[in-house]
Write a structure and sequence with these properties.
The protein has about 100 residues and is an all-beta fold. The termini are close together.
Length: about 100
């Protein structure tokens, strides 16, 4: 199954006192252009030092945080991967 890479994404997150980023909700446009919001039910920081290409084809650098998350989509948990580029303050996602 191929992954879908989404560039336009809004993320509501919590910033901890020790510079920990915790994503809470995402908002993306569906195929009809309507913005849909989803709650993040589970999230793990899977970032590491160094550069690599992730299995979904996203090239990750030292300036990126990577999160393996599950979102609630109409009562079913769906896995997603969130990427936060700390240098550009930009979120992206693959599903």
């Amino acid at each position: 199954m191929s992954k879908k890479y989404i560039k336009k994404l809004d993320v509501i997150c919590m910033m901890g006192g020790d510079d920990v980023v915790i994503p809470l909700r995402i908002r993306i446009e569906d195929d009809d252009g309507v913005r849909q919001a989803y709650s993040i039910k589970d999230c793990r920081d899977i970032s590491h030092r160094g550069t690599c290409t992730r299995p979904d084809g996203v090239f990750v650098t030292n300036e990126m945080l990577v999160f393996a998350c599950k979102i609630d989509v109409f009562g079913a948990l769906r896995p997603i991967t969130l990427y936060y580029d700390t240098g550009k303050s930009r979120w992206t996602m693959s599903v």
